[in-house]
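Risk register update: the risk of archive-format incompatibility is retired. Evidence:
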Amino acid sequence: MKARLYTLGCRLNQAETAIIAKSLAVRGFEIARSDETADLTVINTCTVTEQADAKCRQAVRKALRKNPETFIAVVGCYAQMAVETIRKIPGVDLIIGNEHKLKLADYLNGLSKQDTPLIVHSPKISRGEFSIESHGLYDNTTRANLKIQDGCNFVCSFCIIPTARGAARSRAFDDILREARQLVELGHQELVLTGVNIGTYQSEGRTLTRLLKKLEKINDLKRIRISSIEPTTIADEVIRMMADSEKLCKHLHIPLQSGDERILKLMRRKHSAREFIDFIEEVYRRVPDVGIGTDVMVGYPSEDEQAFIHTKKLLADLPVSYYHVFTYSDRKGTASYKMSEKVQHHVKKARTALLIEQGERKRRTFYEKFIGQTVSVLFEHKNRDGYWTGYTSNYLPVAIQADDDLHNTIRPVRLNSVDDLHNISGSLID
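Archived output:
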């Protein structure tokens, strides 16, 4: 039997899909390629926006068009939030919320198509420390995502995730180390720590800093990368480690959301604009060549022209390498949904375009800083144009031409030119 898995949304979803894939492989399933039909189709969903919800429904319909007989399992955040909507989609056989989705294999019931879907759903998600039975299964043996945490207590006014995933909770310390060692034994040279709010990690008094120190001691693990992390949760010792460590990647993705103090308060963010500025400047001062990314939201209710200018100027002035720009959209169930001072669509669209353009200039400037330097690249795969591609510690995307098989190797590369914002061209150093 073959299983096809679709992942929508965040890196945490990718980590969980990999764990589901492993549990299915243990049960005898072969994981199908994207061009193959499958007996089972698993759609791990996102619900961060209404557009994300729509993509989930589209994924179901697309899978059924390709293979009308496939057993459809819809799991994850959208399944947690919209059971009644999903159960009405023709062809869905199984719906599993976030509490039970990693145990999907236990609910398959012989892949018998159902007139009405089986629903496995807990309105309240467990709050305690958790463990995961297996390790993730990945097609590519270079980088692997390592789930260390779930849920969030911050309750930003625009965010539905604390409702979909529950309160902040951490994975058992030794359980993380067990999976990390397994992933390294399988050949993964880089582990990306992921969760909803990973800076709040704590297992029996052991923090993210303690976890990083333990991971550093794993033989054959070459890189540890921290995924998106809230600015107020990053301990000073993590920055010190990043400056000194040979394994901890010199890369941080730190969400800003707005550069305006009034908007930040309305968003219920835990930091001020001034605190964000001071923190980014401190990291840049202490960690040479660090790559710093951020998230910024445009068009939050009551964002006037002055508030937007504050955000635009803050990002222009700071040593931020790149940023992801999100256009605010109402999300039912959040506090901002009820706010009346909505920003008009054409204004949001124009502001979004301005920030994206500015962000592309910032990214190019950051890339050009390293032209002529020699960097270490973990190569992942050969693209359609025949170039080997990979990333540096500080998240520079590099592409080179080479006859050798560079997959899952770390090699020194001299950077030659910024061809586009997807890749920097380089040449191997013998």
